[in-house]
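Quick one, T. Sequence first:
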Amino acid sequence: MLEDAAFASLGRELAPEATNQQLVRAHTERYVDQITTMSPENGWVSLDPDTHMSPGSLAAAKCAAGANVAAVDAVMGGAARAAFCAVRPCGHHAERERAMGFCLFSNIAVGALYALDDLGAARVAIIDFDVHHGNGTQDIFWNDSRVLFASSHQMPLFPGTGAAGERGEHDQIVNTPLRPMTATGEMRAAFENQILPAVKAHRPDLIMISAGFDAHQNDPLANLLWTADDFRWATERLTDAAAELCEGRVVSTLEGGYDLDGLAESLTAHLEVLASHAA
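Structure tokens:
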């Protein structure tokens, strides 16, 4: 999909590895050391029934987090108006001290904390439209008033968190659980009535998107009925908010998406909007 002529003009950068100093802002030093020590030289190890490491996993996870740092650097520094991190493994299930749900490090949290602690951002808004709740992002920012975390996700579904009553210590977490088989109308209502007003009230200096595409109607791991047009619409609303609130600054990072055709179709719509916004 990224090789299509429509995206030929996009600038592309190899992701650097996040440093341990950057990782321990989102995770404890003990946890980062544990993941490093468990990285196998051969074969693979299991961190939980879903989350495994092979010899290349640690480097890939450090690059996934480092991509968010580099993207934030580019957007906050004015080199780009928007950036997308095409990464694996995903990150939004990784809690401060626990790997889970295919995730080793919280990629988006590492990027957000870099913006806040190193680049002078006062507030960051993270919007997560992956079909699974971003429990890791919520865990890391539960006590941090600088970060709005807003999530739309199917419930009930893994990981079992994300009830509307989970609001954070500073009322800065907005969860909008959606019932199985939810389609366009309820999804857009959740954005219009809850997520977007919260973003505008937070007045962020940077908008970050946990862009999972497993809410697509063909995805095998969930039961929502979103289409590529829904992801296009959500991205348009978020880039409009960025233009209004924070000089257009948007960083998006890939989370889930397990039907490859649905993923490519949805990501095409997402990137078309980001590219138009950045032009």
